[in-house]
Amino acid sequence: MPPESKTARTVKTLIRVGKALRDEPAPEAGDRRGGLSEAARRAAQRVALDPRLRGAAAQLQELRAEASARADQRLETLIGEARARRGETPPDEVAALLDRRRQERDAKLERRRARQALLAHGQNDDQRRVLALVAAATPWAGGEAASVRYTALLDELAPGGTPAAEMAIHRALWTLAEGRVLAVSPHGVITAVQTLPPAPPAALPGS
Questions:
Q1: What is the pLDDT along the chain (207 residues), one digit of tens a residue?
Q2: What pTM value is reported for the model?
Q3: Is 191 helix (H, G, I), strand (E, B) or coil?
Q4: In 124-169, where do the E strands start and end?
Q5: How far apart are CA 32 and CA 196, in angstroms?
Q6: Running DSSP on this structure, what letter comes out for residue 52?
Q7: Which are the contacts of 202, defined by CB distance < 8 A and separation ≥ 6?
Q8: Out of 69, 152, 179, 199, which could bridge 120 as a Cys pair, Cβ 3.0 to 4.6 Å?
Q9: Burial class, 144, CB count within 10 angstroms (exposed 0-12 / middle 13-18 / buried 19+)
Q10: What is the CA radius of gyration of the chain?
Q11: Considering all CA atoms of the chain, what is the largest pairwise distance in Å, rounded to the nearest integer?
Q12: Ranges of each domain in the chain
């Protein structure tokens, strides 16, 4: 009988981790407000995983960011031109405000680029779905800070719990972890690696 490949061993390990985490007792229910917040977050993540909605949301976000950047730049230009005509320099508080707005704009741009770089590592639909879910919980990639557990990821991406669906997610997660794009803690918490390797060539949609 041939020895198991490294890929097969890793996939089996991830499956065992997932089963073990599923068997853990559920934490006690929090107050109603906390439960509603969690439900809203999970609903937002489901929306983010729909390819069509995700694409439309990303396009809308990009348009808003571009409009905001143009407005900021126009405001800075108008203030600078008005002061120049009067031979004045901006007061310290105005200069500080403009500088702060520039820093915020640059930070948003950096987060958008980081998200794009993270999602670029998805080479098939399953990998892209995994990355979209993790990115939505990653602040440096423009997401809201949240913990993505292995069991929650399976529940979101393979809600039917069928072996084929779960295996596809196991493989996608393993490939991204092996490529040092994602990391899985001993407790089953999945995080994105901020210092990413170069993205591979783009794959065709649906591959």
A1: 555 555 555 556 556 655 555 555 555 555 556 666 676 666 665 555 555 566 567 667 777 877 877 887 787 788 778 878 888 777 788 778 888 888 888 898 899 889 989 999 999 999 999 999 999 999 999 899 999 999 999 998 988 888 999 999 999 999 999 999 999 999 999 999 988 777 766 555 555
A2: 0.64
A3: strand
A4: 148-149
A5: 39
A6: H
A7: 120
A8: 199
A9: exposed
A10: 22
A11: 86
A12: 6-19+44-192
Given CA atoms 154, 160, 165, 167 in this order, what sign does their dihedral have? Answer: positive
| Ramachandran assignment for 142, one of left (phi > 0), alpha (psi -120 to 50 degrees), beta (any other) | left
Residue 192 bridge partners (DSSP): 182
Residue with tokens 């997610």: 169
Q: Are 177 and 183 in contact (CB under 8 A)?
A: yes
Please give the structure tokens belonging to residue 104. 């915020």
DSSP state of 182: E
Quote the DSSP letter at residue 159. Answer: T
Q: List residues bridging with 189 in a β-sheet.
A: 149
Nearest Cα to 138, choosing from 125, 130, 147, 129?
147
What is the Cβ-side half-sphere exposure of residue 188, based on CA atoms within 13 angstroms? 19
Q: Report the distance separating Cα 30 and Cα 187, nearest Å.
A: 21
